[in-house]
Each structure stands twice: as C-alpha cells, then as structure tokens.
Design goal:
mainly beta; five-stranded antiparallel beta sheet; 36% strand; 9% helix; six-stranded antiparallel beta sheet
C-alpha cells in the first residue's frame, strides 16, 4: 500500500509539473499603447500579463487576415519572421520581465501595421490575445506631397489659380491645403484654412482678390496622422 501511495504521489507531482510547463499564461498582455509615431518609427508599450515575457510582433494590417502566431517552444529575437506570405509577422522585440515597452524602427511611411503582443511562459507557450486592446492597428506618418506647381501661362486668372502637386506613392486619405496672403500663413483665406482635399493632384482655388500675392502649402493626412508641410516655391 505504501508503494502504491508513493507511485501515486510521483504521478501527481509529474502531472503538476507538466501542467505548469505546458499551460498557457493565465492572463495575456493588454492595453497596447503607441507614442512618438513618425514615418519610420514608433514607441510601443503594453500592460503585462502574468507570463515570463512577451513577444511584440508587427504584421501588415492590409494583408494579415489571420496573423501567424509564434510556434510553441521556439525562441525569437528582434528581426525574426513568423510564418510566410500575407500573414507573416516580424518580431519587434522579445521583452522578458519586467520589461513592458520597446521601439520599432525601419517602418514604412503611410502604412498601417497590426501589432500583437504574445505573453509567454517559461516553456515558451504563447498566449494568442483576443482583447480589443491587443491586437491594435497603428498608422505611420505619411510622406508629404511634392512638386507643388502653378502654371504661369494657363494656371492663373484674375481671381483664381490652379494648384497642382505630386501625391506620395502611398496615396493615403487626402490632403490639407492652406492659402494665405502672407508667407507666415497667419492670414488664411476663407475655405482654405485649411481645405480638406481628396486624393486628387490639382485644385482650382477661386474667389481670390485681384492684384494680390498668395501663398499656399499642403500636407498629407492618413487617419489621424499628418505629414510635414510642403510650401509652394520651397520644394
């Protein structure tokens, strides 16, 4: 009987050890936050779960419909890829306790990324989060429009001019266009303070005063991100 209890005790301990090693972390990371977002970089923070670490991974939000999760038992470092094709992820950082923040660099301007933080335990079991704060999408700052131009022969009238520009390769949501009677843009013209313009490449600006100098500038917007200003005559 003592031998039976001994074997049962061993089995119980083995079961507990196995459960500890192969169980997912009980609580995933959540509340992903972003700061200092630029065209090519950003800072990322997260509220930790109860694991031994967390893997921060970025995906192309436009293509990653079913993002590939990390493989159980695998160790990853920054720059490693997870999966392949449209659902492939790229590791931004492997944050061991007590770390909860990192920086992402080498990003593409005017692009939407899906950020997922996978909490993991000592056996490298990764918890795939489903909270509305993890995963999170984030847009980078877009490129500004370039080659602002007014044709002096056909693009100017007594009370109007036609502004043209080259939009960035990524296109994005549209542009903000300002028109002012001073080069410091402190005296903005009504309806152009700024005007929100679609993804076109030209606009007739009408209702101006004859024999008056005007200055204009543009920036790209993409969601809540805006590019730097491009001022006519400076690019």
């Amino acid at each position: 009987m003592k031998r039976l209890f001994f074997y049962l005790a061993i089995l119980a301990v083995a079961f507990l050890i196995q459960s500890e090693l192969f169980a997912d972390p009980l609580s995933p990371a959540y509340n992903i936050i972003f700061s200092s977002v630029t065209k090519t970089s950003m800072k990322i923070g997260v509220t930790k779960g109860n694991g031994d670490g967390r893997l921060v991974v970025r995906y192309d939000a436009a293509t990653a419909i079913s993002p590939t999760a990390p493989t159980t038992g695998s160790t990853y470092i920054a720059g490693n890829t997870i999966g392949s094709g449209a659902n492939m992820g790229t590791v931004i950082a492997n944050l061991t306790n007590p770390n909860w923040k990192t920086s992402a660099t080498g990003l593409t301007a005017g692009k939407t990324y899906k950020i997922i933080v996978y909490e993991y335990n000592s056996a490298l079991n990764y918890n795939t989060p489903t909270d509305f704060t993890n995963p999170r999408n984030v847009k980078t700052v877009p490129e500004p429009p370039t080659n602002l131009y007014v044709d002096p022969c056909t693009g100017v009238g007594p009370t109007w001019f036609t502004a043209t520009w080259v939009k960035p390769v990524d296109g994005k949501d549209g542009f903000y266009l300002r028109v002012s009677t001073d080069n410091g843009f402190s005296s903005l013209v009504d309806m152009y303070e700024p005007a929100e313009v679609d993804t076109t490449t030209s606009l007739m600006i009408d209702g101006l005063s004859n024999n008056t100098d005007y200055y204009w500038s543009m920036k790209t917007y993409y969601g809540n991100r805006t590019s730097s200003d491009t001022v006519y005559g400076t690019n």
